[in-house]
Write a structure and sequence with these properties.
The protein has 81 residues and is mainly beta. 10% of the residues lie in helices and 47% in strands.
Length: 81
């Protein structure tokens, strides 16, 4: 199983890293120029936790957001062990 949140489905994203040079027109320059675009990954804040679901203990990935919701009792039938 890949690194994906068990409840929310969050996972890593592939995004562009844009490198620019120059001074913005609003600041009195001639404008910003793009000098490089490379691909990079934005990693989701995932943590492995043990849960009890329908009497079975599982070890799964959770996003930090899902853990906060789980701590408040937001998901029925699932509890942290």
């Amino acid at each position: 199983m890949s690194r994906e949140c068990y409840l929310t489905g969050k996972k890593n994203k592939v995004v562009n890293s844009v490198i620019r040079r120059g001074k913005a027109r609003a600041d009195g320059g001639v404008g910003r120029k793009t000098t490089g675009i490379t691909r990079r990954t934005q990693k989701a804040n995932l943590q492995k936790k043990f849960i009890r679901e329908n009497g079975q203990v599982k070890r799964v990935w959770f996003s930090a957001n899902a853990l906060r919701t789980l701590a408040k009792g937001g998901f029925s039938g699932i509890e942290l062990v």
